[in-house]
């Protein structure tokens, strides 16, 4: 089982940290520093796996790593995992990143951390290997990207509608209107008198009800 996946640069700055075993945050930082120092002092002409540090479990765990340009990719695994199999898994993960980001570099891991974590979840979840076929992983990532674009188009529709309404050219309402109040009131009073003299009762055709004496 995979216990942790660590990615840090040549100066020990962590770029991707994923633990599948619960550790306090302070212990996690110490594990990253300890692992960096263990890996950094190894020559390039020796094997790419060694015993884990004392904080991660010592000889019960192995550190399997690959060095690409400015980044170290380190997988901490228990004795049930194959060293060569994990080396191939690291290669698949890095090639998938390179495929998704088109010549991946350290800055991609900094500014697209959410996407990097999603790609990692397609490879490893809960410390267990899910997929080792790069084409299948890339197909899942592309499907997710299409879904996000379609959802983004739907969510942007109300904003586009509001923008369209704002851009409608409505006729301006005149603001300065001079109204002579005396003339308007006189005209209204004359019209009301004329209507009162000409209007007939609404129920003139019906006889009035008898009154009780």
TrEMBL record:
Organism: Felis catus
Pfam families: Clat_adaptor_s
Keywords per UniProt: Cytoplasmic vesicle, Golgi apparatus, Membrane, Protein transport, Transport
Annotated localization: Cytoplasmic vesicle membrane; Golgi apparatus
Protein name stated in the entry: AP complex mu/sigma subunit domain-containing protein
Job description of the protein: Part of the AP-3 complex, an adaptor-related complex which is not clathrin-associated. The complex is associated with the Golgi region as well as more peripheral structures. It facilitates the budding of vesicles from the Golgi membrane and may be directly involved in trafficking to lysosomes. In concert with the BLOC-1 complex, AP-3 is required to target cargos into vesicles assembled at cell bodies for delivery into neurites and nerve terminals.
UniProt record similarity statement: Belongs to the adaptor complexes small subunit family.
Domain AP complex mu/sigma subunit: 1-147
Classification via PROSITE patterns: CLAT_ADAPTOR_S (PS00989)
Membrane-topology descriptor: Peripheral membrane protein
């Amino acid at each position: 089982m995979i216990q942790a996946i660590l990615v840090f640069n040549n100066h020990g700055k962590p770029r991707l940290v994923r633990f599948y075993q619960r550790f306090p945050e302070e212990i996690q930082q110490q594990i990253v520093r300890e692992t960096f120092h263990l890996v950094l002092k190894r020559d390039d002409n020796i094997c790419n796996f060694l015993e884990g540090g004392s904080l991660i479990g010592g000889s019960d765990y192995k550190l399997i790593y690959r060095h690409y340009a400015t980044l170290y990719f380190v997988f901490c695994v228990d004795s049930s995992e194959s060293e060569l199999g994990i080396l191939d898994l690291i290669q698949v993960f890095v090639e998938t990143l390179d495929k998704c980001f088109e010549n991946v570099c350290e800055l991609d891991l900094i500014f697209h951390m959410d996407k990097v974590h999603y790609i990692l979840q397609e490879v490893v979840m809960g410390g267990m290997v899910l997929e080792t076929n790069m084409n299948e992983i890339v197909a899942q990532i592309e499907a997710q990207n299409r879904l996000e674009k379609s959802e983004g188009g739907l969510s942007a529709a109300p904003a586009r509608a509001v923008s369209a309404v704002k851009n409608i050219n409505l006729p301006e309402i005149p603001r300065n209107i001079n109204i002579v109040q005396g003339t308007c009131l006189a005209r209204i009073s004359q019209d009301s008198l004329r209507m009162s003299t000409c209007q007939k009762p609404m129920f003139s055709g019906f006889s009035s009800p008898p009154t009780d004496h």
